[in-house]
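thought: fold this chain, then report.
action: predict
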Amino acid sequence: MKLIDGKVIAAEIRAELKARTQAFEEKYGKKIGLAVVLIGNDPASQVYVRNKVKACEEAGIRSFRHDLPEETTQKQAEELVSALAEDEHVHGILIQLPLPRGLDEKRLLSLIPPSKDVDGFLAENIGRLALKEAGTVACTPLGVMEMLSRSNIPVAGKRAVVVGRSNIVGRPMALLLLNADATVTVCHSKTKDLLEECRRADILVAAIGKPKFITADMVKEGAVVIDVGMDRDENGKLCGDVDFENVKEKASAITPVPGGVGPMTIAMLLKNTCDAAERAQR
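observation:
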């Protein structure tokens, strides 16, 4: 069984990105910039933002952090995002979700230009992915593809099963695998005989947000298992959507939680920001 170490792969990518940011600064006389907008005081969001800002600094990306109070109005939030959209020093804009109640998430995200949508959440970028055109891809599924590639795990011709159909992981994950010539099945809460569907997978991606949901009897011998989940078990311990201890006995390769897909998500956010900055100079 091969453990796919997201920390190690993400560190490699950050080192590569540091060289890219230095080359950009030397060529254009300015830093690559990422604006991070945090509204409210959600503890998990504050941790995520702190990690993203720290990762930016390490990669040589200038972060513009904007912390707004819980009572921020829709108008105030829109004014900030609109100003960032116009700022030539900002190459990527990230609005940390979830937003406080009363704020229109869809409206706020729509104010981000597709060229600065480093999360890859906008309809235009998802449409480009569906049409196999160049655009920005959601960070987590992009990170999964990078892990597979750097771990020398072939995708073309393989049967891939994605459990979960969210707009930010499941759907773009399925499209990326399809674009890489896998035969793809997407499973969800209405799927009949989920057990059998999962058992057919050469590559099984779990992205449903249910702790230890994928058990050993759902996994084919020798399958590659990618765990996108970030959950807490009955003892409050961090775990994924996969019953890791039992599934690892059957998998040929598997990602741990923590230390698997999580570090890759932030690494891909930095990569998307670098890509956006370089495109803006063309």
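thought: worth noting. The longest strand covers residues 33-39.
final: tokens above.
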